[in-house]
Design the sequence.
């Protein structure tokens, strides 16, 4: 066994030495090939999609149904029961728990028009239909849409839904918020934006939140007519508030319990527009007598003092930073988030003209992606600058510091190629993996350059030191890379629940660690043989013959 390992190491060392000598003999071709490889990899990098974080598979579904906004709890219950039955009819579903309106603890103040379903799924290896989760969602969405016309459904996951709602303030994976002053104008323009988004491939669960359409009773008091009876606007408003809304007349105590006693008109005197018009307001004084009232007190119908009408108004008003807005929610499936929203933004900018003072904001997961990208534009250059500062403190040379970091682009190229082959999008998880590669790549550069400097201090020429350092450090660099690579292979190929978040990071590190040692062991010696200062004296016979004492390359 030991002899086999020794032969393998010797074969790798012999192959590497042949490659290194060929690269040193053709420096320009080697450097040109390296830059050509960078260009090709950058092309593949532009073909990668981008997203905030990969979809974390939780093994469940969270389905939200948006019923008509004016529906009552009792009227919506039969539809919610039927939806629960339809969802539970799919063989992949373990059970279904539904909720309509707000819960008893009041933590989620939804109206009765919102119904939510928690749908735990059976383990994937027990599915017998041959569908994956995306196909299950499509089949379930089609079935629900066919049976419940006009009801909008949104599909998410339990933890994912809570995080997304906390991020954007809207019950949806992503949202378009249109800010403005007039709700009617906002709603009309948002319908135009919705029409544009429906033409974008990958956009799913698209719907505008219906905030208009609630029936409002508007009572406009006529000041002139009220004054004829000696009534102020406040007097009429007080009667309306007491008759319809009620007023606390007393308090009722039962032991330690306390209840306000609210008094108002019976329902039959306030349950319709006609009944409200017949509500009477008491007027007294000389103005009432001059208006034709008999006696010290006159009772005037509310319709004689105000115009009363039923109008369509807002059932809910969204506000953010003291500005009104209406949200449009959507999800992205079977396509990357960045490319989908980028295409949607382009179509909206080209085809939707907003009035002055109205503003569109894309929030949710896409908003977090943009914020994370802005942070990375600061973190990555700052990390590289800090690495260069540390290297300069070690080598006391800008030239040596730049040589030590020259392997970083090729480590990143390995990560990009690995993502492209695995079919993964570039995400924040992948970006963290890229930053991790920086440290390993720089460590390999330090190992090579430090040994080159030691050899030169012991009388080696520049070219002899470069060749000897590459041969001596090949094993350490390869072992460092392979140990990190092999350790993360299980995470890179895992498909279990929760593996989606760690998979891009592991894939990037595995790809980078496979590719980076090759370029570090070949390109850094080639660049060092060109960029390091030449020897002032000719090479000594000792330097050509072998390494100095104490600096010999390790024997296998």
Sequence:
């Amino acid at each position: 066994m030991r002899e086999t390992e020794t032969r393998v190491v010797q074969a790798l060392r012999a192959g590497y030495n042949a490659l290194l000598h060929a690269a040193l003999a053709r420096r320009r071709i080697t450097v040109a090939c390296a830059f050509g490889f960078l260009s090709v990899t950058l092309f593949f990098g532009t073909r990668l999609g981008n997203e905030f974080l990969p979809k974390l598979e939780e093994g469940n579904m969270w389905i939200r149904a948006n019923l008509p906004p004016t529906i009552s709890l009792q009227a919506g219950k039969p539809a919610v029961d039927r939806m629960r039955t339809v969802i539970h009819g799919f063989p992949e579903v373990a059970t279904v728990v539904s909720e309509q309106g707000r819960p008893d603890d009041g933590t989620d103040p939804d109206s009765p028009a919102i119904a939510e379903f928690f749908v735990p799924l059976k383990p994937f290896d027990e599915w017998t239909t041959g569908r994956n989760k995306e196909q299950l969602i499509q089949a379930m969405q089609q079935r629900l849409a066919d049976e419940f016309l006009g009801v909008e459904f949104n599909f998410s996951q339990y933890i994912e839904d809570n995080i997304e709602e906390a991020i954007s303030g809207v019950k949806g994976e992503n949202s378009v918020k249109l800010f403005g002053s007039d709700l009617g104008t906002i709603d009309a323009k948002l319908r135009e934006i919705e029409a544009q988004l429906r033409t974008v491939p990958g956009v799913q669960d698209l719907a505008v939140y219906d905030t208009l359409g609630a029936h409002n009773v508007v009572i406009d008091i006529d000041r002139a007519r009220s004054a004829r009876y000696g009534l102020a606007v406040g007097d009429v408003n007080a009667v309306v508030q007491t008759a319809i809304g009620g007023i606390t007349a007393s308090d009722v105590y039962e032991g330690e319990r306390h209840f306000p006693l609210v008094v108002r008109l019976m329902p039959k005197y306030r349950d319709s527009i006609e009944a409200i018009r017949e509500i009477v307001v008491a007027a007294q004084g000389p103005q009432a007598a001059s208006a034709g009232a008999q006696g010290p007190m006159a009772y005037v119908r509310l319709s004689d003092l105000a115009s009363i009408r039923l109008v369509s108004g807002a059932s809910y008003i969204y506000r953010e930073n003291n500005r009104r807005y209406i949200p449009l929610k959507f999800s992205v499936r079977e396509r990357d988030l960045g490319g989908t929203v980028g295409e949607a933004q382009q179509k909206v900018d080209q085809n939707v003209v907003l009035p002055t003072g109205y503003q569109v904001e894309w929030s949710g997961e896409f908003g977090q992606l943009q914020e994370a990208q802005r942070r990375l534009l600061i973190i990555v250059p700052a990390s590289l600058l800090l690495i260069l500062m540390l290297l300069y403190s070690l080598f006391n040379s800008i030239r040596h510091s730049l040589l030590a970091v020259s392997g970083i682009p090729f480590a990143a190229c390995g990560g990009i190629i690995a993502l492209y082959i695995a079919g993964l999008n570039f995400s924040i998880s992948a970006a963290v993996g890229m930053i991790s590669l920086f440290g390993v790549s720089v460590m390999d550069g330090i190992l090579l350059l430090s040994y080159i400097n030691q050899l030169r201090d012991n009388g080696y020429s520049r070219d002899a030191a470069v060749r000897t350092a590459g041969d001596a450090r090949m094993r350490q660099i390869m072992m460092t890379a392979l140990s990190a690579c092999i350790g993360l292979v299980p995470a890179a190929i895992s498909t279990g629940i929760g593996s989606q978040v760690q998979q891009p990071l592991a894939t990037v590190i595995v790809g980078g660690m496979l590719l980076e040692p090759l370029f570090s062991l070949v390109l850094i010696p080639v660049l060092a043989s060109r960029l390091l200062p030449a020897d002032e004296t000719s090479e000594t016979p000792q330097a050509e013959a072998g390494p100095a004492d104490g600096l010999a390359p390790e024997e296998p």
Remarks:
- The longest strand covers residues 212-221.
